[in-house]
Amino acid sequence: MRASLIQLSVDAGESAGERRRRAAGLVRDRAGDDLVVLPELWAAGAWAYDGWDRDAERLDGPTAEAMSAAARDAGVWLHAGSIVERDADGTLYNTALLFDRTGHLAGHYRKIHRYGFDTGEATLMGGGGDIVTVPTELGVIGLAICYDLRFPELFRALLDAGAELVVVPAAWPAARLTHWRLLTRTRALEEQVHLLACCATGSHGGMDQGGHSAAIDPWGTVLAEAGRAEETVTADLDPDEVARIRTDLPVLRDRVLGDRVPGDRHSFKRSHAVREAPPT
After folding, report:
1. Is residue 149 a contact partner of residue 187, using CB atoms and an 8 Å limit?
2. Would you say which domain of life the source belongs to (predicted)?
3. Does residue 190 carry a catalytic annotation?
4. Does residue 111 carry a catalytic annotation?
5. Any catalytic annotation for residue 269?
6. CATH code: domain of residue 184
7. What is the reported pTM?
8. pLDDT tens-digit profile of 44-94?
C-alpha cells in the first residue's frame, strides 16, 4: 500500500479558496497512490481563531466538494485533514473527512480533545463523542486529530474498535516538535498499528507549524519523514505487518487493565475502596 502525506504550507497570505484549489491539485498529482493525507484545518488555519466563524462549513461544503472531486479524479482514498464544521445548531467542530476512491465521504470524525485550555479551540468548538474507524480494502482506518495524540486511551479505544492504521492530521507547533516526534512513534508502537501523521508547515495565527509529517510502522520505525518545508512524503506500507508483529510480539493479549479485547488471557476486576466517614 502506498501512502502519501501532503505537508501543506498554511500561511495567512493565502485565502482559504486559494489553498483549497492548490491542495486539490496536489492530491490529483498523487494518482497511483492508495491513500493520501492532508493536515488539520488547512483551509481555515488551525491557529487563526478569528476567521473560524467566517470559514466554517457544512460536511457538504466547499472543502468537502473540492476534496471529493480530487479523490475521485486521482482514484485514491483521501483523508482530507479536517475542517471547521458548522453543525445545524450552529456549533463548530474540528472535523476530519475521509473519502473513498469514488469521492464518497466514507467517514468523518469530530475531534474529542480540544486544545487551548481556556482559550481557542477549547472554548470556540464543541467536542466530539464518537470513536471512529472505517473498514477499507487497505485495512481498518482509525481517525484522530493532533492534540488527541496526548491521550493514549483514545488510541487504545481505536485499537479495540479494530484499527490497523491510524491517521492523524495536525497543526502541531514547532516549539513542541520533540513531543510530536515522540508521541507519534509511541502511539504506533503501543497499539501495533501503522500511523500516518500529517502536520502543516508555515505560520498563521502567530504560530509556526512543526512539519515533520511521518509514516510509522507497528514496530515504531519511521518509514518516511518530512522536514519543515512544504513537501509530500511517500511510504510503502505492508498491511500484513500489523498481524505479523502482533503475533511475533503479542503484548496486546497481556493487557490486564481496562476492558478486555478478543484474545485476552486475563480479566481485571475493578474494585473501589470505601472510606468510612469520620465519627461526628
Report:
1. yes
2. Bacteria
3. no
4. yes
5. no
6. 3.60.110.10
7. 0.92
8. 999 999 999 999 999 999 999 999 999 999 999 999 999 999 999 999 999
